[in-house]
Design brief:
This protein is an alpha/beta fold. The protein has a single domain, classed as 2-Layer Sandwich (Nucleotidyltransferase, domain 5), CATH 3.30.420. The chain has helices at residues 35-45, 75-83, 95-111, 121-127, 137-146, 158-174, and strands at 2-7, 16-22, 27-32, 49-53, 116-119, 178-183, 187-192. The strands form two sheets. The chain has a five-stranded mixed sheet with strand order 3-2-1-4-5.
Protein backbone atom coordinates (compact mmCIF):
# COMPACT_ATOMS: atom_id res chain seq x y z
CA UNK A 1 0.00 0.00 0.00
CA UNK A 2 1.49 3.31 -1.08
CA UNK A 3 0.25 6.74 -2.05
CA UNK A 4 1.71 9.48 -4.19
CA UNK A 5 1.34 13.12 -3.25
CA UNK A 6 1.79 15.95 -5.74
CA UNK A 7 2.09 19.59 -4.70
CA UNK A 8 1.41 20.84 -8.20
CA UNK A 9 2.78 24.15 -9.46
CA UNK A 10 0.67 26.19 -11.85
CA UNK A 11 3.43 26.23 -14.49
CA UNK A 12 6.33 23.96 -15.42
CA UNK A 13 8.91 26.66 -14.67
CA UNK A 14 8.06 26.41 -10.96
CA UNK A 15 8.89 23.36 -8.81
CA UNK A 16 6.31 20.65 -8.20
CA UNK A 17 6.81 18.59 -5.05
CA UNK A 18 6.40 14.81 -5.31
CA UNK A 19 6.23 12.25 -2.51
CA UNK A 20 5.77 8.50 -2.47
CA UNK A 21 4.66 7.33 0.97
CA UNK A 22 4.51 3.64 1.86
CA UNK A 23 2.40 1.86 4.50
CA UNK A 24 5.28 2.17 6.99
CA UNK A 25 5.12 5.97 6.55
CA UNK A 26 8.49 6.14 4.80
CA UNK A 27 8.53 9.19 2.55
CA UNK A 28 10.60 9.57 -0.61
CA UNK A 29 10.44 13.04 -2.12
CA UNK A 30 11.76 14.90 -5.10
CA UNK A 31 11.17 18.02 -7.15
CA UNK A 32 9.69 17.68 -10.63
CA UNK A 33 8.95 20.25 -13.33
CA UNK A 34 7.08 19.45 -16.54
CA UNK A 35 3.99 17.33 -17.05
CA UNK A 36 5.85 14.51 -18.80
CA UNK A 37 8.25 14.18 -15.87
CA UNK A 38 5.41 14.29 -13.31
CA UNK A 39 3.45 11.63 -15.20
CA UNK A 40 6.47 9.36 -15.76
CA UNK A 41 7.57 9.41 -12.11
CA UNK A 42 4.01 8.95 -10.84
CA UNK A 43 3.16 6.08 -13.18
CA UNK A 44 6.43 4.21 -12.55
CA UNK A 45 5.82 4.49 -8.78
CA UNK A 46 2.59 2.40 -9.05
CA UNK A 47 0.73 4.14 -6.21
CA UNK A 48 -2.69 3.01 -5.05
CA UNK A 49 -3.85 6.62 -5.27
CA UNK A 50 -2.46 9.98 -6.38
CA UNK A 51 -3.42 12.89 -4.11
CA UNK A 52 -3.00 16.21 -5.90
CA UNK A 53 -2.88 19.69 -4.41
CA UNK A 54 -4.77 21.48 -7.18
CA UNK A 55 -8.41 22.01 -8.11
CA UNK A 56 -9.36 19.06 -10.32
CA UNK A 57 -12.81 20.19 -11.48
CA UNK A 58 -14.73 23.37 -12.23
CA UNK A 59 -17.74 24.50 -10.22
CA UNK A 60 -21.10 23.26 -11.45
CA UNK A 61 -22.50 25.73 -13.96
CA UNK A 62 -19.07 26.92 -15.11
CA UNK A 63 -18.07 25.71 -18.56
CA UNK A 64 -14.53 27.08 -18.62
CA UNK A 65 -12.13 29.45 -16.92
CA UNK A 66 -11.74 31.57 -20.04
CA UNK A 67 -15.38 32.70 -20.14
CA UNK A 68 -16.46 35.22 -17.48
CA UNK A 69 -19.00 33.92 -15.01
CA UNK A 70 -20.36 34.68 -11.56
CA UNK A 71 -19.78 31.02 -10.55
CA UNK A 72 -16.55 30.79 -8.54
CA UNK A 73 -16.97 28.19 -5.79
CA UNK A 74 -17.61 24.47 -5.69
CA UNK A 75 -19.45 22.80 -2.82
CA UNK A 76 -16.12 21.52 -1.43
CA UNK A 77 -14.88 25.13 -1.39
CA UNK A 78 -18.00 26.20 0.50
CA UNK A 79 -17.37 23.37 2.98
CA UNK A 80 -13.85 24.73 3.59
CA UNK A 81 -15.35 28.16 4.27
CA UNK A 82 -17.78 26.64 6.78
CA UNK A 83 -14.80 24.91 8.47
CA UNK A 84 -12.99 28.26 8.73
CA UNK A 85 -10.15 27.11 6.46
CA UNK A 86 -8.54 29.71 4.20
CA UNK A 87 -7.92 28.99 0.51
CA UNK A 88 -7.65 30.71 -2.86
CA UNK A 89 -10.67 30.30 -5.18
CA UNK A 90 -9.83 28.47 -8.39
CA UNK A 91 -10.96 31.41 -10.54
CA UNK A 92 -8.46 33.79 -8.91
CA UNK A 93 -5.50 34.83 -11.12
CA UNK A 94 -2.74 32.19 -11.08
CA UNK A 95 -5.14 29.59 -9.68
CA UNK A 96 -6.64 29.37 -13.17
CA UNK A 97 -3.43 27.90 -14.61
CA UNK A 98 -3.13 25.51 -11.67
CA UNK A 99 -6.72 24.34 -12.16
CA UNK A 100 -6.25 23.74 -15.88
CA UNK A 101 -3.01 21.86 -15.27
CA UNK A 102 -4.56 19.80 -12.47
CA UNK A 103 -7.55 18.83 -14.60
CA UNK A 104 -5.26 17.74 -17.47
CA UNK A 105 -3.05 15.72 -15.12
CA UNK A 106 -6.06 14.00 -13.51
CA UNK A 107 -7.50 13.10 -16.93
CA UNK A 108 -4.21 11.59 -18.08
CA UNK A 109 -3.68 9.60 -14.88
CA UNK A 110 -7.23 8.25 -14.99
CA UNK A 111 -6.79 7.29 -18.66
CA UNK A 112 -3.89 5.12 -17.41
CA UNK A 113 -6.18 3.40 -14.90
CA UNK A 114 -4.98 5.36 -11.86
CA UNK A 115 -7.09 7.00 -9.15
CA UNK A 116 -6.47 10.73 -8.70
CA UNK A 117 -8.03 12.65 -5.82
CA UNK A 118 -8.02 16.32 -4.94
CA UNK A 119 -6.67 17.41 -1.59
CA UNK A 120 -5.46 20.59 0.02
CA UNK A 121 -2.40 20.30 2.28
CA UNK A 122 -3.11 23.56 4.11
CA UNK A 123 -6.52 22.23 5.18
CA UNK A 124 -5.04 18.82 6.06
CA UNK A 125 -2.37 20.49 8.18
CA UNK A 126 -5.01 22.57 9.97
CA UNK A 127 -7.09 19.46 10.69
CA UNK A 128 -4.01 17.54 11.91
CA UNK A 129 -2.95 20.50 14.11
CA UNK A 130 0.45 20.93 12.50
CA UNK A 131 1.83 24.22 11.12
CA UNK A 132 1.44 25.20 7.49
CA UNK A 133 4.65 25.91 5.56
CA UNK A 134 4.01 29.65 5.85
CA UNK A 135 4.73 29.33 9.58
CA UNK A 136 8.15 27.81 8.91
CA UNK A 137 9.43 24.66 7.22
CA UNK A 138 11.08 23.28 10.36
CA UNK A 139 7.75 23.40 12.19
CA UNK A 140 5.95 21.65 9.34
CA UNK A 141 8.66 18.98 9.07
CA UNK A 142 8.59 18.43 12.84
CA UNK A 143 4.79 18.24 12.75
CA UNK A 144 4.87 15.57 10.04
CA UNK A 145 7.57 13.67 11.93
CA UNK A 146 5.37 13.83 15.02
CA UNK A 147 2.62 12.13 13.01
CA UNK A 148 4.99 9.24 12.33
CA UNK A 149 6.30 10.19 8.88
CA UNK A 150 9.79 8.78 8.44
CA UNK A 151 12.82 9.73 6.34
CA UNK A 152 12.20 13.48 6.39
CA UNK A 153 15.41 15.47 6.26
CA UNK A 154 16.55 19.00 7.05
CA UNK A 155 16.49 21.32 4.07
CA UNK A 156 13.40 19.85 2.44
CA UNK A 157 11.46 22.42 0.44
CA UNK A 158 7.94 23.54 1.23
CA UNK A 159 6.83 21.89 -2.02
CA UNK A 160 8.22 18.55 -0.84
CA UNK A 161 6.65 18.87 2.61
CA UNK A 162 3.27 19.75 1.13
CA UNK A 163 3.64 16.73 -1.18
CA UNK A 164 4.29 14.58 1.91
CA UNK A 165 1.07 15.95 3.41
CA UNK A 166 -0.81 15.11 0.20
CA UNK A 167 0.62 11.57 0.21
CA UNK A 168 -0.43 11.14 3.86
CA UNK A 169 -3.99 12.12 2.89
CA UNK A 170 -3.75 9.59 0.05
CA UNK A 171 -2.70 6.85 2.48
CA UNK A 172 -5.60 7.75 4.80
CA UNK A 173 -7.88 7.53 1.76
CA UNK A 174 -6.62 4.01 0.99
CA UNK A 175 -7.18 3.06 4.65
CA UNK A 176 -10.68 4.62 4.57
CA UNK A 177 -9.71 7.02 7.35
CA UNK A 178 -10.53 10.13 5.37
CA UNK A 179 -13.14 12.85 5.13
CA UNK A 180 -14.60 13.66 1.70
CA UNK A 181 -16.20 17.09 1.47
CA UNK A 182 -18.28 18.53 -1.33
CA UNK A 183 -20.75 17.21 -3.86
CA UNK A 184 -19.80 13.88 -5.50
CA UNK A 185 -21.47 15.01 -8.73
CA UNK A 186 -19.12 18.01 -8.84
CA UNK A 187 -15.85 17.22 -7.00
CA UNK A 188 -15.01 15.76 -3.62
CA UNK A 189 -12.00 17.08 -1.75
CA UNK A 190 -10.28 14.46 0.39
CA UNK A 191 -8.95 15.43 3.81
CA UNK A 192 -7.95 13.62 7.00
CA UNK A 193 -10.71 12.80 9.45
CA UNK A 194 -10.27 15.04 12.48
CA UNK A 195 -9.54 11.88 14.52
CA UNK A 196 -7.11 10.33 11.98
Amino acid sequence: MKAAGIDLAGVATRPTGFCLLDEHLRARTRILRNDDEILAVTIESHPGVVAIDAPLALPRGRESLSVRSDVHLRECDRALLRMGIKFFPLTLGPMRQLTERGMRLKATLESRGMTAIETYPGAAQDILHIPRKGKGLDGLRDGLTGLGIRALRPGMTGDELDAVTCALVGLLYLKKQHLAIGDPDEMLMVLPKPTA
